[in-house]
Amino acid sequence: MINAEFLWNKEHRLTGFRIIGHAGYADKGFDIVCSAVSVLTINTVNSIGRLTDDYYTFDKNENEGFMLFEVKELSDSSEILLRSMRIGLESIAEEYGNEFISIK
């Protein structure tokens, strides 16, 4: 199962995410749930990197299905991109079920 946790600052603004695990929907290389989550998260990281001047940290380990991303100097643009990613992950959970992805 993929566990997605969103990170919030003291002002209740969305600043990042932590993703751990693999969906287990299908065999490696054929798992469309893992692929969808990967596309959404990597696109969000790339978009924040290219479209904003915000400083962020990013760590990942593909074998373990681990990603940790946090914007340290948050702009409205970064928060919108992160909120959009969250909507996408929630849509995947609704479509494929909570046994493959959990969102906190």
Question: What report would you give on this structure?
Answer:
The chain is built from two helices and five strands; from the N terminus they run E-E-H-E-E-H-E. It has 104 residues and is an alpha+beta fold. Strands 3-4-2-1-5 form a five-stranded mixed β-sheet, with helices on one face. Helix 1 packs antiparallel against helix 2. The radius of gyration is 13 Å and the shape is globular. It starts with a strand and ends with a strand. The model has no long low-confidence stretch (mean pLDDT 93).
Name the strands of the widest sheet in spatial order: 3-4-2-1-5
Gross morphology is: globular
Number of helices: 2
The largest sheet, given as strand count, sense and whether it forms a barrel, is:
5 strands, mixed
Mean pLDDT: 93
Q: Radius of gyration from the CA trace?
A: 13 Å
Percent of residues in helices comes to 25-40%
Number of strands: 5
